[in-house]
Design brief:
The chain is an alpha/beta fold and 907 residues long. The protein is built from 34 helices and 21 strands. α21 (532-544) links the parallel β17 (520-528) and β18 (555-559). It catalyses: tRNA(Met) + L-methionine + ATP = L-methionyl-tRNA(Met) + AMP + diphosphate. InterPro entries: aa-tRNA-synth_I_CS, Anticodon_Met, Met-tRNA_ligase_1, Met-tRNA_synth, Methionyl/Leucyl_tRNA_Synth, MetRS_core, MetRS_Zn, Rossmann-like_a/b/a_fold.
């Protein structure tokens, strides 16, 4: 103790009279921002690792409260191994020959452990050498001399004394509160109406200072005219999502695995004012297209045109904000693909080889990968494709399949024949282009599963890979000897990102081949894990083999698989819920976006569940988020004439702001690392803080007494500021809901901030308030579950039988909002097997549908604002489902305010 007081936690950065920073990550971040040094994702990743793994493990270990049951030693060892791996050849964590930010952060965290000469340090000689060398550097030695930090258990205690809310991972959760309870002073942990607010005085002081500061301008750029090109002197973001095959309708697993995940990150970047280009499109070449064309009796081009339009419609409905959504069947694709091929050929990275290829005797044709199915040689899955097994994700050669069968005719009369093909010489590329070295460094920013898959490929040893096929539908091989062949789709498809950019702008090389040191491009790729081998090895190897300075992936973001209930989604077999299905449910797109991100399979497989879908909507959206937004704005509307009142902040209010600020920081850290699922949960945490704040302050009682009027205004005013913040944070995830909140707040743009601020000035007039969400009822969900059971073929068969049956409705309500008229509305008037519908009610609804359909068409013709169109489309869908319910056809959109016909009123 010092003069009878508790020894202060050191080091500490004194910013001003009221603001003191004690957390190393916070200190480094503040100093870098003050010095205008940009925080890169790698450093943010290290900070995240330090905060969530290394620091908790060290604190738990030193506390002597952890035991074998908690796995403390195991967790600490794993964390220290990770740190040792990050030490560069010069002996430091930075990429330079001297210690820098990275070293300062980790050194401060490990000091209490390594300075105590604990036995665990002897297991890590490389780490101990780094620690000793760092201690000898002048700046570090001076800090030690000035601070004289404690080590061991006493060093851990000082951290908890100052920061009782230090993040403690689950294995040492018991220690966190047990240790704090005996050491923390009341001013560091105060009780507010029965709720413990776990924020430190330093956090409260920072919240107070930020609240009194200047409100930043919105970083959102207006409608951009012209082309988006990379800008010198700043970081530019190139974002692509794996190209969906054009051979079918995408299911929910496809959507969250690529386009939706990329869209959330792209929108986040835009809200922050970053210069980004988000490109994707349909993958239209290859055997999948030819197979689908054979099934539907169309030409490959007709299939591509049909499904490209369908994909575009679905993604537009999901509010996916592409800067350009293209396709691979373009002249730019042919030119760029053939140019890359010829450069590889000239650089001697291509080889001609004879291969055994499957040949269907009844069809008299060679069978490319997608024309073959059989038993996987690795896992025994009976329906593996000729190029990859959907179950174990192993890449296969069609000739390795057991019991192969032709997908065209179904025959097992399949033999092998010789065929001349072109191979990409991956072993030569690995040696000459130093692929392993590139992968080791590039994959630092990749998701763990992407890193594991890519490194497993390298570990097994790269082999020559065939990049041509005996097909007609594809990019022609530009060699006379192989003019009857086309590129293999997985050599050709990733080039689509480049050709689509070329379709978007003639200056495409500024994004893709840019050797300027002044232009920094961060390339993000989003995909499911089955696409990783092609994007992590084949595509980069092909680009490096051209000897040109291509933009290569820095952030490969891969998801695991999203399953459907107790089984698997399957586009080829029509199992699960598909994009066209969700458009027919009448449930708004943002609800689907929310749930898909909520269950996004980031670290392991997850599943779409109808019950959970209903539960999350009703609990997280309706009762938590929607409840807070609605009650906050309704109070302003009811008691303050829809105007933001004057706010007079108390210490308790600043503590709430500090709590919210903590969640904002975590939200930012998670989104920078593309951990979208966890970032979404931070938003819900903030709305929960808001609900607790309202519940504890009880503005409904404060408004009854004139003396409490000012306090009531403050509570409602703070609530409105939290609503504004939630609107901004929601924008990447639920853009439609964010737009609605902006309308209710009467503001035009979100403002991104690192802190909760008084965004709305006193006297600001809000708009009309209405509920954001509707309750989903169990009977509705059960009907949807039943409707989408089985596969698409079985559903069509059931629907066909229903249409033929005289006891069933003769038609299905159309969901094409652009082609509604009185005729298709009247088709729904026939009744189901129950009681006959009231003709007057049917006629009334038909008239309303016809009128609403005309309104939607007029708005589209006039190219009205998307928000207005979406609102009217939703109204149209609700009317249709009301008619469907009346006629016994469809599941209605639930409206908690409406009553079904025949429902007994409350007595």
């Amino acid at each position: 103790t010092l003069e009878g007081k508790q020894r202060p936690r050191l080091p500490i950065l004194v910013v001003d009279e009221v603001t003191r920073l004690f957390d190393t990550n916070a200190i480094v971040t503040y100093l870098m921002e003050t010095g205008k040094v940009q925080l890169d994702p790698k450093l943010l990743g290290l900070m995240n690792f330090d905060a969530h793994r290394l620091s908790p493990a060290i604190l738990a270990y030193l506390s002597e409260k952890g035991d074998a049951d908690f796995g403390v030693t195991k967790e600490l060892t794993a964390a220290l191994i990770e740190i040792e791996k990050k030490i560069n050849p010069y002996g430091f964590l930075s990429e330079e020959r001297i210690p820098k930010y990275e070293d300062a952060i980790i050194w401060s965290t490990v000091y209490p452990l390594l300075a105590s000469n604990d036995k665990v340090g002897s297991k890590f000689p490389k780490l101990m050498e780094w620690f000793s060398n760092t201690c000898r550097y002048a700046a570090f030695a001076e800090a030690l001399a000035a601070i004289k930090p404690l080590s061991g258990k006493e060093g851990a205690k000082t951290i908890f004394i100052c920061n009782p809310a230090a993040v403690i991972s689950t294995f040492c959760e018991r220690f966190a509160r047990a240790e704090v309870s005996s050491t923390v002073k009341t001013e560091d942990m105060e009780e507010q109406s029965g709720t413990v607010v776990n924020v430190s005085n330093e956090e409260v002081a920072a919240a107070r200072q930020a609240w009194k500061g200047q409100i930043p301008h919105s970083a959102v750029k207006g409608k951009r005219s012209g082309q988006i090109l990379p800008l010198a002197g700043q970081r530019n973001y190139l974002i692509t999502s794996a190209l969906p095959y054009v051979n079918n309708v995408p299911h929910l697993g496809n959507i969250i695995g690529c386009v939706l995940s990329a869209d959330v990150f792209a929108r986040y970047c835009r809200v922050r004012g970053r210069n980004i280009l988000y490109v994707s499109g349909t993958d239209e070449y290859g055997t999948a297209t030819e197979t689908k064309a054979l099934e539907e009796g169309l030409t490959p081009q007709q299939i591509c045109d049909k499904y490209h339009a369908l994909h575009s419609e679905i993604y537009k409905w999901f509010d996916i904000g592409f800067d350009y959504f293209g396709r691979t069947t373009t002249k730019e694709q042919t030119q760029i693909g053939q140019d890359i091929f010829m450069r590889l050929y000239q650089n001697e990275y291509l080889k001609e080889m004879t291969v055994l290829q499957l040949f269907c005797e009844p069809c008299k044709r060679f069978l490319s990968d997608r024309f073959v199915e059989g038993t996987c040689p690795s896992c025994g899955y009976e329906d593996a494709r000729g190029d990859q097994c959907d179950k174990c994700s192993r890449l296969t050669n069609s000739t390795d399949l057991k019991n192969p069968r032709c997908k065209v005719c179904g025959s097992a009369q399949v033999i092998t024949k010789n065929s001349e093909q072109v191979f990409l010489d991956l072993p030569a590329l690995e040696q000459k282009e130093r692929l392993a070295e590139w992968l080791e460094k590039a994959s630092e920013q990749w998701t763990p599963n992407a890193r594991h898959i890519a490194k497993s490929w390298m570990k097994e040893g790269l082999k020559e890979r065939c990049i041509t096929r005996d097909l007609k539908w594809g990019t022609p091989v530009p060699l006379d000897k192989f003019k009857e062949k086309v590129f293999y789709v997985w050599f050709d498809a990733p080039i689509g990102y480049i050709s689509m950019t070329a379709n978007y702008t003639s200056n495409w090389k500024q994004w893709w081949i840019n050797s300027s040191k002044d232009v920094e491009i961060e390339y993000y790729q989003f995909m499911a894990k089955d696409n990783v081998p092609f994007h992590s090895i084949l595509f980069p190897a092909s680009l490096k083999g051209t000897k040109e300075p291509w933009t290569l992936v820095r952030h490969l973001i891969a998801t695991e698989y999203l399953n459907y209930e107790d089984g698997k989604f399957s586009k080829s077999r029509g199992v699960g819920v598909f994009g066209t299905d969700v458009m027919e449910t009448g449930i708004p797109a943002d609800i689907w976006r929310f749930y898909l991100i909520y269950v996004r399979p980031e670290s392991q497989d997850s599943a779409f569940s109808w019950d959970d879908f209903m539960t999350k909507n009703n609990s997280e959206l309706l009762n938590n988020l929607g409840n807070f937004v609605n009650r906050s704005l309704t109070f302003l509307e009811k008691f303050f004439h829809s105007e933001v009142p004057t706010i007079v902040m108390s210490e308790d209010d600043y503590r709430v702001v500090a709590e919210v600020n903590r969640e904002i920081v975590e939200y930012i850290n998670l989104l920078e690392l593309c951990k979208l699922r966890d970032a979404l949960r931070q938003i819900l945490a903030i709305s929960k803080i808001g609900n607790v704040y309202f519940q504890s302050q009880k503005p409904w009682t404060l408004t009854k007494n004139a003396a409490d009027r000012q306090r009531c205004g403050t509570v409602c005013g703070v609530g409105a500021q939290i609503v504004f913040l939630l609107m901004t944070l929601l924008d990447p995830f639920m853009p439609g809901v964010a737009r609605t909140i902006r309308e209710q707040l009467n503001v035009s743009k979100p403002i991104f901030s690192l802190s909760l601020l008084p965004f709305l000035s006193p006297g600001h007039k809000i708009g009309k308030v209405s509920p954001l969400f509707q309750k989903l009822e169990l009977d509705m969900i059960e009907k949807l579950r039943k409707k989408y059971a089985g596969n698409q073929a079985e559903r069509k068969e059931k629907e066909a039988k229903k249409l033929k049956s005289p006891s069933k409705s003769s038609s299905v309500v159309s969901t094409d909002s652009g082609n509604n008229n009185a005729n298709n509305a009247s088709d729904t008037a026939s009744t189901g097997g129950g009681a006959a519908a009231d003709p007057a009610e049917v006629a009334k609804l038909e008239a309303e549908i016809a009128k609403q359909g005309n309104l939607v068409r007029d708005l589209k013709t006039k190219k009205a604002d998307k928000t207005e169109i979406d609102k009217e489309v939703q109204a149209l869908l609700k009317l249709k489902f009301q008619l469907g319910l009346l006629s016994g056809n469809e599941t209605p959109v639930n409206d908690s305010k409406s009553k079904k016909k025949g429902t007994n009123k409350k007595k």
